[in-house]
Amino acid sequence: KVLILDFGSQYTQLIARRVRELNIFCEIFPYNHIPEDVADFKAVILSGSPFSVHQEDAPHPDLSQIKGKIPLLGVCYGAQYMAQNFGGKVEPSKVREYGRANLSYIKENETLFEDIHEGSQVWMSHGDTITSLPNHFQKIASTHDVLNAAYKIDGETTYAIQFHPEVYHSSDGMKLLKNFLVSIAKVEQDWTPDSFVESTVAELKEKLGNDKVVLGLSGGVDSTVAAVLLDKAIGDNLYCIFVNNGLLRKHEFENVLDQYKHMGLNVKGVDAGDRFLDKLKGKSDPEEKRKAIGNTFIDVFDDEAHRIENVTWLGQGTIYPDVIESVSVKGPSATIKSHHNVGGLPDFMKLKIVEPLRMLFKDEVRRVGRSMGIDDELLGRHPFPGPGLAIRILGDITAEKVRILQEVDFIFIEGLKKWGLYNDVWQAGAILLPVNSVGVMGDERTYEKVVALRAVSSTDGMTADWVDLPYKFLQETSNKIINQVKGVNRVVYDISSKPPATIEWE
Ligand code: XMP
Questions:
Q1: Which end of the chain is more exposed for a tag (fewer CB within 10 A), N or C?
Q2: Which residues bind ATP (predicted)?
Q3: Which CATH code fits 2-184?
Q4: What does the pLDDT look like over 316-333, one tens digit per residue?
């Protein structure tokens, strides 16, 4: 395995993903928590950083357990830190060095640059530059503006580069990482979905023995893949609970429950729609609605967990980005802290926690799911918010509004599938607006609800853009909705990007 020491760069996760794409397992640790078993790592990569090496509080880790002992690659700040620390000079750059650059010199026969040629585009993002290298350091590449764009240390397998190989715009970045990890550090490329499943199932068997685990299924990708892994390890000692909060898509509860049963999971469906609706009555503030739903879910889940005798573990579908967040250089975020501080935790939250996906990125979760034979349709589903349709019905919630929105959403989503557009969209849904508008049907004047359709493209939900759906499709969908869903007489399409808008309307 490979260690990535994080100095707080926005690109650290991207380095990890690139390494995983090479079928090599890696873990990220903050620079101030070098793991005790560091000697077991086959290679180490130092990330970039928002700091300048000249800042007083800049990271200054002790690398004596690593440098000269394990193959080491410094990226950006990592390169500057080593150069400065061992007697070189790092100074503020005269020219701003952000964005595209091209390698203008590469040392001959240098393994790090094997199969990479002069002219190759690299991506720079730094304010300081290495103006002189320590004695036993050797320049191995330059760009027009950056003399020491890459160096190595004589007699060691220590390398450093000023540019970012992990970003897409460094056209030979993957080659360089492969040269370092495979040719220089001799790391095996044996991290595959199949090998992950095999080793994880073995670990889970060992860890859980005959213990019982309870896990909440949501219909989403993460909880499903986590459940299938646990099922492979402990079979019916895994108790899955799938709660219908009454705010799911049309037919979703029955269909997904059926799918789960088909997959052989020991699952219990709990239809608690009325309980949720009751708690939501009269609430129109978005955060109050979210709270009511969250609390009711906890109550329902706790009741169900109590019915399982001697259960000692809670299974969760936590994935790597959440884990990194909670151990990051910047420290755990406020929200992660707060839920551990709540007094009087429900009983199930006192269980020991097992998280089979805590080392995986989202795309790896899908690949693992696919390798275990989970249906592509299930793995490719759009994200759906936990509070469900409640945050797509603006204002207060009633059973009738839920019914209307379920019908509208169903026509929209089925249409996307029929037109082959579903997989081009990252997330789609319909919003029921709290306004009525005038319409005319036959000879009658109507005064009915307006719905908005929303379809966005995104990679992680942090930023998003609206999707340019074909007019013909929008036309057909709008007609169907107005003709078939009683209570709706107008359809609009949301053309706002995030930021400044958000994906959901509340
Ligand atoms: P926004 O509206 O913030 O949404 O742009 C970003 C992503 O988060 C989802 N979302 C939620 N998911 N509980 C959830 O589980 C929530 O309260 C919630 N609010 C928004 C949203 O669907 C989108 O994928």
A1: N
A2: 218-224
A3: 3.40.50.880
A4: 999 988 887 766 666 443
